[in-house]
Amino acid sequence: MPKPSPSSPPFSERVIAAVRSIPEGCVATYGEVAAVCGSPRAARGVGAVLSGRMEADLPWWRVVNRSGALTIPSHLGLRSLQRTLLEKEDVGFDVDGRVDLSRHRWTTGADEVD
DNA sequence: GCATTGACTCTAG
DNA sequence: CCTAGAGCCAATG
């Protein structure tokens, strides 16, 4: 009988690995990270994981929503922190406070056009 | 183990 | 292009 798949790490770990794989000066969307995790519809799950692993060595600030906007709770001051960190990473912001996804959109290289 | 919440995304207007 | 509503997934109590 098939063993309980020992090579199936939890989603959390996969999200951590995906986010950690994001190079400096680049940003990825929750849906992109979720897709790499195996669930393209688990965009919310990614946020849930990040909120619980933010204390780890995880560049959570490189993760933005599909519009490139920072959907992080501002009451914790994290929104300003993320924007500051991204600006320090050489990431540009739009006048609306959104990241230039056309310029910093990170991809896994699995489905790269061009 | 069920119910609620939340750093999302999609479709429709 | 922006707003509104519904759906999906995972974490937490």
Structure annotation, total helices:
5
Overall outline: globular
- The oligomeric state is single chain
Strand content: under 5%
Unreliable stretches (pLDDT < 50, length at least 5) are none
Number of E-type strands: 2
Helix-strand pattern, N to C?
Answer: HEHHEHH
Q: Please name the fourth-level CATH homologous superfamily.
A: Winged helix-like DNA-binding domain superfamily/Winged helix DNA-binding domain
Using the 3D structure, state the CATH architecture: Orthogonal Bundle
Helix content range: 25-40%
CATH class: Mainly Alpha
How is the main sheet built? 2 strands, parallel
Describe the model.
Strands 1-2 form a two-stranded parallel sheet. The chain has 5 helices and 2 strands. It starts with 10 loop residues before the first helix and ends in a 10-residue tail after the last helix. The longest helix has 11 residues, at 43-53. It has a single domain, classed as Orthogonal Bundle (Arc Repressor Mutant, subunit A). Helix 1 (11-20) packs across helix 2. It is mainly alpha-helical and 114 residues long. The structure holds a DNA duplex (13 and 13 nucleotides).
Short account of what is shown:
With 114 residues, the chain is mostly helical. Helices cover 39% and strands 4% of the residues. It is built from 5 helices and 2 strands, in the order H-E-H-H-E-H-H.
